[in-house]
Amino acid sequence: MDARFTAEQDDIRRTLRELLHKRCGPEEVRAAVDTPAGHDPALWTALAEQLGLPGLALPEDRGGAGCSVTELALACEETGRVLAPSPLLATAVLTAPLLLALGTDAQRARLLPRIASGRLTAALAVPGPALTTALALTGHDPRGGWAGGGRAGGVQARRTDGGWLLYGQVEQVLDGHSADVLLVAAHAGGFARSRVLLFLVRGDAAGLTRVRRTALDATRPQARVQLRDTEAELLGTDRVDVLPALARLGETAAACLAAEAVGAAARVLERTVEYAGQREQFGRPIGSFQAVKHRLADVYVQVQAARSAAYYAAWTAAQKTREAHEETAGGLALAQALQALRSAAAEGIQLHGGIGFTWEHEVHLYFKRAAGDELLFGPVHRLRAHAADAADVFEEAGR
Known about the structure:
CATH superfamily of the largest domain: Butyryl-CoA Dehydrogenase, subunit A, domain 3
Number of strands: 9
Structural class: alpha+beta
Order of helices and strands: HHHHHHEHEEEEEEHEEHHHHH
Oligomer: single chain
CATH architecture of the largest domain: Up-down Bundle
CATH topology of the largest domain: Butyryl-CoA Dehydrogenase, subunit A, domain 3
Strand order of the largest sheet: 2-3-7-5-4
Strand content: 15-25%
Radius of gyration: 21 Å
């Protein structure tokens, strides 16, 4: 096995880093999160037209670049370095794979080329308190109880002569306030035969209300989505088994999220090391003190370990056949990366002193990303505990 990146993968990373360095500095990030969309549409257009980022992991016959999860994870690592607010995670990582896997030929032909070109953004609306539960990263429910059950809670789907109507509410939808189309998980079939299906809802559909929520991490816009007898289109057919597809998506999404967190951790560590070489105490840079060196070295080790885990998770997710022990690689990599980001951001705040948590400095943005990501995709101990249960670690140890 050759673990080195190909020339094409290196080109993707280098070109994207150069573009983001020019177009997505700290001031641009602050300006973008204050817009109604929560991101810079001009930057998103550039990412789509110049680099084909939204369609990176989509097949060529659907308008994409025909790359794998590995290339998408590398792109997420670069966007994570600058905390670029964009629909990439919601559209390309969470929604497009489900459209590709479960959609009909007509749906794929209608939606995927527009997603690949950047002309269409999408968001995954999953009821319940934690997206990672639906993606089988922090738990597994074979009946989809995370979406609400029976006639109460979650989102309910009702078949009519003209199609489907949805009724319910989803509290946390990443980029849900600005997405052109929503992919909504809903219960159908009543209490006794209830099952989870996925539905496409247009952003301008009647009965749909979307309100952007105040979030700890402003670079990850979230919305509350309300559906009141909203017309929807069933994704695929009603015979599609949605829950295994969501679990498979969880592995690829975890690899991309891990790479994104690694990029953010590496960048805040770089900024901290740079500042430690400039700030002086007792007539010498604080970076020359052994205690500071040890703290930064510990963070460096964590970041490098997390990077290796993220790359391995991306590689395993790209394989068509995987060993049993590889099924938990994504969750473990995400746990490692979130912990590394938390440590890097915390040390960044401490070693930057009083300026580290001010609006004028960018380090506080990384601290909020670390805290916000653990709330959205963690916590770390639950990711690890579920991976251990899935791999029968404790049963093996007890034999």
